[in-house]
Write a structure and sequence with these properties.
The protein has 6 helices and 8 strands, in the order αβαβαββββαβαβα. By secondary structure, the protein is of the alpha+beta class. It is globular and about 55 Å long. The termini are far apart.
Length: about 190
């Protein structure tokens, strides 16, 4: 891929202007990957599904409400920012102007959308009731997806801060799932 300034993708560092915006979460099905294979040398496909369901998903970044669900007892803190340069404790844009640091209860840098992880649980053909292992649990989004899709979950995380966040978020998802099941059993309609 060649950018307007003549730089090429995959050829070392690209300036901020050349990088542009990349989609947050895009996964390809076999047919789309085959089309790209004809156009490019190396596009990997990691999943197969005998039911041949459509396996293309675009999922926007997780909303703050989704990231912080279940963390009402946590103090809002500055969240990790991937933008700008840190100068004397202040994030600055390339032109030197300050960047507002967002605050939230979930401070993990790369929180995935729950819908994406639910889709991946189904895509990898982990059966309902099956066990999903997440060796880099972060703030627990895969665990929430497992609760919502009826799968068992084992998560591993080295950061104590993130383990506490994950635990609270997964417990919240379990309480929501139990409330929905009870409402359904009583003949009510589950919200959603």
């Amino acid at each position: 891929m060649t950018f307007r300034n003549g730089s090429r993708a995959g050829m070392g560092y690209l300036s901020r202007e050349a990088r542009g915006r990349w989609p947050t979460n895009v996964l390809l099905d076999d047919a789309t990957a085959e089309v790209l294979d004809r156009q490019a040398d190396n596009v990997a496909r990691y999943f197969s599904n005998p039911e041949r369901e459509a396996r293309f998903l675009y999922c926007p970044k997780a909303h703050r409400k989704e990231k912080d669900a279940g963390l009402e007892d946590f103090e809002p803190r500055p969240t990790a920012s991937m933008q700008g340069n840190l100068v004397d404790g202040q994030r600055l844009a390339g032109n030197g102007t300050p960047i507002r640091t967002p605050h939230g209860r979930n401070t993990h840098k790369t929180v995935k959308p729950v819908a994406l992880m639910e889709w991946l649980c189904r895509l990898t053909e982990t059966p309902s009731g099956g066990r999903v292992l997440d060796p880099f649990m972060g703030s627990g989004t895969t665990g929430i997806a497992c609760v919502r899709t009826g799968r068992q979950f084992v998560g591993i995380e080295q950061s104590g801060e993130y383990v506490a966040i994950a635990w609270a978020r997964i417990r919240h998802a379990e309480r929501e799932a139990n409330a929905t099941r009870q409402l359904t059993l009583m003949g009510g309609q589950a919200a959603g």
